[in-house]
Write a structure and sequence with these properties.
297 residues, alpha/beta, 7-stranded mixed sheet
């Protein structure tokens, strides 16, 4: 059996079992490749075509089959089984204490030369960044990499998630530039910040009830956003101006909740940013727009 044969066979099993994707892969073949490469100790960014002639031993095939079986029977995201997830080509540790990193905000941090990314909105005086709801710390790490002269605060309400984030900050050697702390929203985040990044809990209650098991395996605290998905966001947008410098911006991911967002904040002037998911997932808000539309509580 070749590596390609093993990936194809594993993909067929995943597809037949009806598992859900979306935690780093979007189809059975890509997920099978991830599981096979990881189990065989090959780099996850390996070009599969270059390894097509690679022969797999019977023992290796058995080990891969066991991992695929585990994926199917537990319905755990592959990242929880491998303890590894990749975002914009950067590896991150992850386990069940934090959601699997997949924010589209990462695209805006990884390619600052692309039209419409964050550099356009930031001044040369940008010094302080906040990653709110940091989870496993991936956006904080990517921000520190993208802007090597800034300091990054990264906070979360979950002490468990922060423990995972600490692993990633240390793995990437960014302890001197990323400060991790526990905070319920912006309560312990003093600022003022030049850039706030936030991938908050935004899934509305109807969608939460329909989530496949792979998503139900993640911490509910990081997903559930109330009836319309906007519970956390309402308080965030009211508190944010007091933590922002005059020219600061807030970049917010709201998933498939644009309708609910615009219904909740009809007078708010938002700039919708283009990502690989389209122009409905991530938005940008200036301090001026927030202060004008939402008086602080």
């Amino acid at each position: 059996m070749t590596l390609s044969d093993l990936i194809d066979a594993s993909a067929q099993r995943l597809a037949a079992a009806g598992v859900a994707f979306g935690h780093g892969t979007i189809n059975a073949h890509d997920e099978a490749a991830w599981l096979v490469l990881w189990q065989l100790g090959l780099p996850l960014d390996t070009e599969i075509d270059a390894l097509t002639p690679h022969e797999v031993t019977p023992t290796e095939a058995t080990e891969v089959a066991a991992l695929v079986t585990q994926r199917i029977t537990t319905r755990q995201p592959a990242a929880y089984l491998t303890r590894e997830a990749w975002l914009q080509g950067v590896p991150f540790y992850v386990d069940e204490r934090a959601i699997v990193p997949r924010s589209f905000i990462a695209e805006l941090l990884a390619d600052p030369q692309q039209e419409g990314t964050l550099d356009y909105w930031l001044s040369h005086a940008t010094e302080q960044v906040l990653d709110l709801c940091t989870g496993n710390g991936s956006l904080a790490v990517l921000a520190a990499m993208a802007f090597p002269d800034v300091l990054v605060d990264a906070c979360d309400i979950s002490a468990d998630a922060l423990a995972v984030a600490r692993i990633n900050v240390c793995n990437h050697g960014l302890q001197q530039r990323i400060r991790l702390f526990e905070s319920d929203g912006l309560a312990q985040a003093n600022g003022p910040y030049d850039l706030i990044l936030c991938n908050p809990p935004y899934v509305n209650s109807q969608s939460m009830a329909a989530l496949p098991p792979e998503y139900q395996a993640e911490p509910v605290l990081a997903l559930a956003g109330g009836t319309d998905g906007m519970d956390f966001i309402r308080q965030l947008l009211r508190d944010a101006p007091s933590r922002m410098n005059p020219n600061a911006v807030l970049v917010l991911e709201i998933g498939n909740e644009r309708h609910h967002f615009e219904s909740a904040f009809p007078t708010l002037a938002a700039v919708w940013l283009d990502t690989s998911a389209g122009e409905d997932q991530v938005l940008l808000l200036t301090r001026e727009a927030l202060a004008a539309a939402l008086p602080p509580t």
